[in-house]
Design goal:
Layout (H helix, E strand, L loop, with lengths): L1 H16 L2 E4 L9 E7 L5 H16 L2 E6 L25 E6 L6 H12 L3 E5 L30 H7 L6 E2 L7 E5 L16 E2 L3 E2 L8 E8 L16 E10 L5 E7 L10 H14 L60
Parallel strand pairs: 2-3, 2-4, 4-5, 5-12
Antiparallel strand pairs: 1-3, 6-9, 7-8, 7-10, 10-11, 11-12
Length: 343
Protein backbone atom coordinates (compact mmCIF):
# COMPACT_ATOMS: atom_id res chain seq x y z
CA UNK A 1 0.00 0.00 0.00
CA UNK A 2 2.84 2.38 0.90
CA UNK A 3 4.53 1.65 -2.44
CA UNK A 4 1.27 2.40 -4.27
CA UNK A 5 0.89 5.73 -2.48
CA UNK A 6 4.52 6.64 -3.18
CA UNK A 7 4.11 5.68 -6.84
CA UNK A 8 0.98 7.81 -7.10
CA UNK A 9 2.75 10.77 -5.54
CA UNK A 10 5.69 10.43 -7.93
CA UNK A 11 3.37 10.30 -10.93
CA UNK A 12 1.51 13.37 -9.68
CA UNK A 13 4.77 15.25 -9.17
CA UNK A 14 5.96 14.32 -12.66
CA UNK A 15 2.73 15.67 -14.11
CA UNK A 16 3.17 18.96 -12.31
CA UNK A 17 6.76 19.12 -13.55
CA UNK A 18 5.76 18.41 -17.15
CA UNK A 19 6.56 21.25 -19.56
CA UNK A 20 3.82 23.66 -20.49
CA UNK A 21 3.13 23.15 -24.20
CA UNK A 22 0.92 25.26 -26.45
CA UNK A 23 0.36 24.09 -30.00
CA UNK A 24 -1.61 25.99 -32.62
CA UNK A 25 -3.77 24.49 -35.37
CA UNK A 26 -2.79 26.73 -38.28
CA UNK A 27 -0.51 29.56 -39.31
CA UNK A 28 2.96 30.16 -40.71
CA UNK A 29 4.57 28.69 -37.59
CA UNK A 30 3.25 25.18 -38.25
CA UNK A 31 6.13 22.73 -37.94
CA UNK A 32 8.34 25.10 -35.93
CA UNK A 33 9.12 24.63 -32.24
CA UNK A 34 10.08 27.43 -29.84
CA UNK A 35 11.30 26.68 -26.31
CA UNK A 36 10.91 29.44 -23.71
CA UNK A 37 12.88 29.34 -20.44
CA UNK A 38 11.51 31.49 -17.61
CA UNK A 39 13.82 31.73 -14.59
CA UNK A 40 14.43 35.28 -13.37
CA UNK A 41 13.51 36.60 -9.94
CA UNK A 42 12.51 40.17 -10.73
CA UNK A 43 10.92 40.90 -14.09
CA UNK A 44 8.23 38.20 -13.99
CA UNK A 45 9.49 36.09 -16.85
CA UNK A 46 7.04 33.45 -15.63
CA UNK A 47 4.29 35.78 -16.88
CA UNK A 48 5.99 37.29 -19.94
CA UNK A 49 6.95 34.04 -21.63
CA UNK A 50 3.66 32.10 -21.36
CA UNK A 51 1.86 35.16 -22.74
CA UNK A 52 4.16 35.38 -25.78
CA UNK A 53 4.02 31.60 -26.24
CA UNK A 54 0.23 31.64 -26.36
CA UNK A 55 0.20 34.42 -28.95
CA UNK A 56 2.65 32.58 -31.19
CA UNK A 57 0.86 29.25 -30.84
CA UNK A 58 -2.81 30.26 -30.96
CA UNK A 59 -2.59 32.98 -33.60
CA UNK A 60 0.37 31.80 -35.69
CA UNK A 61 0.57 28.02 -35.39
CA UNK A 62 3.87 27.53 -33.57
CA UNK A 63 4.50 24.76 -31.09
CA UNK A 64 5.65 26.55 -27.93
CA UNK A 65 7.14 24.81 -24.91
CA UNK A 66 7.51 26.91 -21.76
CA UNK A 67 9.94 25.78 -19.06
CA UNK A 68 10.09 27.22 -15.56
CA UNK A 69 12.39 26.95 -12.56
CA UNK A 70 10.43 24.87 -10.07
CA UNK A 71 10.41 24.15 -6.36
CA UNK A 72 10.38 20.58 -5.06
CA UNK A 73 6.56 20.63 -4.89
CA UNK A 74 6.30 21.43 -8.60
CA UNK A 75 5.34 25.07 -8.14
CA UNK A 76 6.98 27.85 -10.14
CA UNK A 77 9.78 29.45 -8.14
CA UNK A 78 12.05 31.82 -10.12
CA UNK A 79 14.95 31.47 -7.69
CA UNK A 80 15.40 27.70 -7.87
CA UNK A 81 18.15 25.88 -9.77
CA UNK A 82 15.82 23.27 -11.20
CA UNK A 83 14.35 23.59 -14.71
CA UNK A 84 12.87 20.26 -15.79
CA UNK A 85 12.17 19.66 -19.46
CA UNK A 86 15.37 21.10 -20.93
CA UNK A 87 15.50 18.12 -23.29
CA UNK A 88 12.81 19.94 -25.30
CA UNK A 89 15.71 21.89 -26.83
CA UNK A 90 16.67 18.79 -28.82
CA UNK A 91 14.23 19.59 -31.63
CA UNK A 92 13.78 23.33 -31.00
CA UNK A 93 14.07 25.90 -33.78
CA UNK A 94 14.48 28.76 -31.29
CA UNK A 95 15.27 29.17 -27.61
CA UNK A 96 13.94 32.27 -25.85
CA UNK A 97 16.04 32.70 -22.73
CA UNK A 98 14.85 34.85 -19.80
CA UNK A 99 17.01 33.50 -16.98
CA UNK A 100 19.02 35.17 -14.22
CA UNK A 101 21.88 33.76 -12.12
CA UNK A 102 20.95 30.08 -12.51
CA UNK A 103 23.29 27.20 -11.64
CA UNK A 104 21.68 24.07 -13.04
CA UNK A 105 22.57 20.38 -12.63
CA UNK A 106 24.41 18.49 -15.37
CA UNK A 107 21.31 16.77 -16.71
CA UNK A 108 19.65 20.13 -17.36
CA UNK A 109 22.74 21.90 -18.71
CA UNK A 110 23.69 19.24 -21.24
CA UNK A 111 20.67 19.83 -23.53
CA UNK A 112 21.53 23.54 -23.58
CA UNK A 113 25.16 22.77 -24.38
CA UNK A 114 24.07 20.49 -27.24
CA UNK A 115 21.70 23.15 -28.54
CA UNK A 116 24.38 25.84 -28.63
CA UNK A 117 26.94 23.52 -30.21
CA UNK A 118 24.56 22.83 -33.09
CA UNK A 119 24.09 26.56 -33.57
CA UNK A 120 20.46 26.78 -32.44
CA UNK A 121 18.88 30.24 -32.65
CA UNK A 122 18.66 32.24 -29.41
CA UNK A 123 16.64 35.25 -28.30
CA UNK A 124 17.76 36.67 -24.96
CA UNK A 125 15.57 38.98 -22.89
CA UNK A 126 16.77 41.37 -20.17
CA UNK A 127 18.60 39.26 -17.55
CA UNK A 128 19.67 36.61 -20.07
CA UNK A 129 22.87 38.65 -20.33
CA UNK A 130 23.68 37.25 -16.87
CA UNK A 131 21.68 34.05 -17.09
CA UNK A 132 24.21 31.94 -15.19
CA UNK A 133 26.15 32.28 -11.96
CA UNK A 134 28.08 29.06 -11.41
CA UNK A 135 29.27 29.01 -7.82
CA UNK A 136 31.74 26.09 -7.84
CA UNK A 137 35.17 27.12 -9.22
CA UNK A 138 36.29 25.06 -12.22
CA UNK A 139 32.91 23.36 -12.41
CA UNK A 140 31.90 21.69 -15.66
CA UNK A 141 29.68 24.59 -16.63
CA UNK A 142 31.75 27.46 -15.24
CA UNK A 143 32.23 28.80 -18.77
CA UNK A 144 28.56 29.85 -18.73
CA UNK A 145 29.11 32.05 -15.67
CA UNK A 146 28.62 35.76 -16.33
CA UNK A 147 31.99 36.37 -14.64
CA UNK A 148 33.74 33.25 -15.90
CA UNK A 149 37.50 32.93 -15.52
CA UNK A 150 37.73 31.11 -18.85
CA UNK A 151 39.71 33.10 -21.41
CA UNK A 152 37.94 31.27 -24.24
CA UNK A 153 34.47 32.17 -22.94
CA UNK A 154 34.91 35.79 -21.87
CA UNK A 155 31.90 36.83 -19.73
CA UNK A 156 30.19 33.54 -20.37
CA UNK A 157 26.90 32.82 -22.09
CA UNK A 158 25.86 36.47 -22.20
CA UNK A 159 28.86 37.81 -24.08
CA UNK A 160 29.61 34.73 -26.16
CA UNK A 161 26.08 34.01 -27.37
CA UNK A 162 24.04 37.19 -26.98
CA UNK A 163 26.82 39.71 -27.57
CA UNK A 164 27.28 41.19 -24.10
CA UNK A 165 27.16 40.26 -20.45
CA UNK A 166 26.00 42.18 -17.41
CA UNK A 167 27.33 45.75 -17.40
CA UNK A 168 24.99 47.58 -15.02
CA UNK A 169 21.87 49.72 -14.82
CA UNK A 170 21.55 52.93 -16.80
CA UNK A 171 19.42 55.22 -14.70
CA UNK A 172 17.15 54.19 -11.82
CA UNK A 173 15.22 50.96 -12.22
CA UNK A 174 11.59 51.01 -10.94
CA UNK A 175 11.70 54.82 -11.12
CA UNK A 176 12.55 55.48 -14.77
CA UNK A 177 10.86 53.75 -17.70
CA UNK A 178 12.31 53.55 -21.20
CA UNK A 179 11.49 54.65 -24.73
CA UNK A 180 13.02 52.45 -27.43
CA UNK A 181 13.93 54.30 -30.61
CA UNK A 182 14.58 52.35 -33.80
CA UNK A 183 17.53 53.58 -35.82
CA UNK A 184 16.38 55.02 -39.19
CA UNK A 185 18.52 52.53 -41.13
CA UNK A 186 16.56 49.60 -39.64
CA UNK A 187 12.98 50.87 -39.74
CA UNK A 188 12.40 48.80 -42.88
CA UNK A 189 14.00 45.66 -41.44
CA UNK A 190 11.55 42.71 -41.24
CA UNK A 191 11.86 42.55 -37.43
CA UNK A 192 10.72 46.17 -37.23
CA UNK A 193 7.62 45.78 -39.44
CA UNK A 194 4.74 47.41 -37.62
CA UNK A 195 7.00 48.46 -34.74
CA UNK A 196 6.87 52.21 -34.09
CA UNK A 197 8.30 53.29 -30.73
CA UNK A 198 8.22 50.55 -28.08
CA UNK A 199 7.96 51.59 -24.44
CA UNK A 200 9.25 49.47 -21.56
CA UNK A 201 8.49 49.76 -17.86
CA UNK A 202 12.02 48.80 -16.85
CA UNK A 203 14.88 51.20 -16.37
CA UNK A 204 17.85 51.02 -18.70
CA UNK A 205 20.80 48.68 -18.92
CA UNK A 206 24.16 50.03 -20.05
CA UNK A 207 25.81 47.55 -22.39
CA UNK A 208 28.63 47.50 -24.91
CA UNK A 209 27.69 44.87 -27.50
CA UNK A 210 30.42 42.96 -29.31
CA UNK A 211 31.72 44.23 -32.62
CA UNK A 212 29.67 41.88 -34.80
CA UNK A 213 26.37 42.97 -33.23
CA UNK A 214 23.95 44.81 -35.50
CA UNK A 215 22.35 47.32 -33.13
CA UNK A 216 18.90 48.25 -34.46
CA UNK A 217 17.45 50.26 -31.59
CA UNK A 218 18.58 52.44 -28.70
CA UNK A 219 16.89 53.01 -25.36
CA UNK A 220 16.25 56.45 -23.91
CA UNK A 221 15.65 56.55 -20.13
CA UNK A 222 12.61 58.62 -19.11
CA UNK A 223 12.13 60.65 -15.94
CA UNK A 224 9.07 58.67 -14.84
CA UNK A 225 7.02 55.51 -15.21
CA UNK A 226 4.64 57.04 -17.72
CA UNK A 227 4.91 56.61 -21.47
CA UNK A 228 4.66 60.37 -21.98
CA UNK A 229 7.49 61.15 -19.53
CA UNK A 230 10.31 63.38 -20.71
CA UNK A 231 13.74 62.01 -21.51
CA UNK A 232 16.44 62.09 -18.85
CA UNK A 233 18.71 64.50 -20.70
CA UNK A 234 21.86 63.61 -18.75
CA UNK A 235 21.55 59.92 -19.72
CA UNK A 236 22.42 59.20 -23.32
CA UNK A 237 20.66 56.43 -25.26
CA UNK A 238 22.01 52.91 -24.74
CA UNK A 239 21.87 49.88 -27.07
CA UNK A 240 18.50 48.18 -26.63
CA UNK A 241 18.11 45.56 -29.35
CA UNK A 242 20.58 43.86 -31.64
CA UNK A 243 21.16 40.75 -33.73
CA UNK A 244 24.36 38.82 -34.32
CA UNK A 245 25.93 35.52 -35.27
CA UNK A 246 27.53 33.50 -32.48
CA UNK A 247 29.70 30.43 -32.14
CA UNK A 248 29.80 28.54 -28.86
CA UNK A 249 33.24 27.01 -28.47
CA UNK A 250 33.99 24.71 -31.40
CA UNK A 251 30.33 24.40 -32.33
CA UNK A 252 28.40 25.44 -35.41
CA UNK A 253 27.59 29.13 -35.98
CA UNK A 254 24.12 30.27 -35.02
CA UNK A 255 21.86 33.32 -34.95
CA UNK A 256 21.10 35.33 -31.84
CA UNK A 257 19.30 38.50 -30.80
CA UNK A 258 19.11 40.35 -27.52
CA UNK A 259 16.51 42.75 -26.13
CA UNK A 260 17.54 44.52 -22.93
CA UNK A 261 13.93 44.56 -21.70
CA UNK A 262 11.17 42.03 -21.13
CA UNK A 263 9.21 42.69 -17.92
CA UNK A 264 5.68 41.34 -17.84
CA UNK A 265 4.22 44.84 -17.55
CA UNK A 266 6.11 45.99 -20.65
CA UNK A 267 4.12 43.49 -22.75
CA UNK A 268 1.08 45.73 -22.36
CA UNK A 269 2.68 48.07 -24.90
CA UNK A 270 1.68 46.86 -28.37
CA UNK A 271 4.91 47.92 -30.07
CA UNK A 272 7.03 46.24 -27.42
CA UNK A 273 5.03 43.03 -27.75
CA UNK A 274 5.29 43.18 -31.53
CA UNK A 275 9.08 43.53 -31.38
CA UNK A 276 9.37 40.28 -29.43
CA UNK A 277 6.90 38.42 -31.65
CA UNK A 278 8.64 39.62 -34.82
CA UNK A 279 12.04 38.59 -33.42
CA UNK A 280 10.67 35.12 -32.69
CA UNK A 281 9.40 34.84 -36.27
CA UNK A 282 12.75 35.93 -37.71
CA UNK A 283 14.95 33.73 -35.53
CA UNK A 284 12.81 30.62 -36.08
CA UNK A 285 13.14 30.88 -39.85
CA UNK A 286 9.97 32.83 -40.60
CA UNK A 287 11.33 36.28 -41.41
CA UNK A 288 9.44 36.29 -44.73
CA UNK A 289 6.16 35.72 -42.85
CA UNK A 290 6.45 38.85 -40.71
CA UNK A 291 3.63 41.28 -41.45
CA UNK A 292 3.09 44.72 -39.95
CA UNK A 293 -0.33 43.62 -38.69
CA UNK A 294 0.45 40.21 -37.19
CA UNK A 295 -2.15 39.31 -34.58
CA UNK A 296 -0.80 40.30 -31.16
CA UNK A 297 -3.94 39.87 -29.07
CA UNK A 298 -3.40 38.23 -25.71
CA UNK A 299 -4.86 34.74 -25.41
CA UNK A 300 -6.82 34.59 -22.18
CA UNK A 301 -6.72 37.27 -19.51
CA UNK A 302 -3.34 38.93 -19.06
CA UNK A 303 -3.00 41.13 -15.97
CA UNK A 304 0.74 41.31 -15.25
CA UNK A 305 2.15 41.69 -11.77
CA UNK A 306 4.29 44.67 -10.82
CA UNK A 307 7.85 43.49 -11.33
CA UNK A 308 9.94 43.32 -8.20
CA UNK A 309 12.49 40.91 -6.75
CA UNK A 310 10.88 38.17 -4.69
CA UNK A 311 7.29 38.99 -5.68
CA UNK A 312 6.39 35.96 -7.77
CA UNK A 313 2.99 34.43 -7.09
CA UNK A 314 3.23 31.36 -4.90
CA UNK A 315 1.38 28.12 -5.44
CA UNK A 316 1.31 28.27 -9.25
CA UNK A 317 2.08 25.09 -11.18
CA UNK A 318 2.67 25.07 -14.95
CA UNK A 319 -0.44 22.93 -15.49
CA UNK A 320 -2.55 25.79 -14.10
CA UNK A 321 -1.59 27.84 -17.17
CA UNK A 322 -2.31 25.10 -19.71
CA UNK A 323 -5.80 26.15 -20.77
CA UNK A 324 -5.85 28.87 -23.42
CA UNK A 325 -8.21 30.95 -21.31
CA UNK A 326 -6.53 30.45 -17.94
CA UNK A 327 -5.44 33.84 -16.58
CA UNK A 328 -1.82 34.96 -16.56
CA UNK A 329 -0.76 35.17 -13.83
CA UNK A 330 -2.78 32.51 -12.09
CA UNK A 331 -4.87 33.70 -9.16
CA UNK A 332 -2.45 32.76 -6.39
CA UNK A 333 -1.14 35.14 -3.75
CA UNK A 334 2.24 36.94 -3.71
CA UNK A 335 4.70 35.83 -1.01
CA UNK A 336 5.13 37.82 2.16
CA UNK A 337 7.58 40.71 1.89
CA UNK A 338 11.12 39.93 3.01
CA UNK A 339 14.65 41.30 2.71
CA UNK A 340 16.00 40.84 -0.82
CA UNK A 341 19.33 41.18 -2.56
CA UNK A 342 19.37 44.13 -5.00
CA UNK A 343 19.49 43.73 -8.80
Amino acid sequence: MKKLILSTLLVAQSLFAAPLVYEGDSGPGQGSHIVFIAADQEYRSEETLPAIARILAKHHGFKCTVLFSLDTDGTIHPGKNHIPGMEALKDADLMVNFMRFRDLPDAQMQPLEDYLLRGGSVLGLRTASHAFRVKVPNATWERYHFLTKSKDYDRGFGRQVLGDGWSGHHGRNHVMSTRINILPAFKSHPIMRGVATPWAMEGGYWQLPAGNCQVMAYAQPLVGMDKASDAVTELKPAPAFWTREYQWGEGQPGKAAYLAYGASESLMDDCFRRLIVNACFALSGHEADIQADLNLEFVGDYSPSTFKIGKHLEGVKPAMLQDWESPIPSGAQPPAAKQQTPK
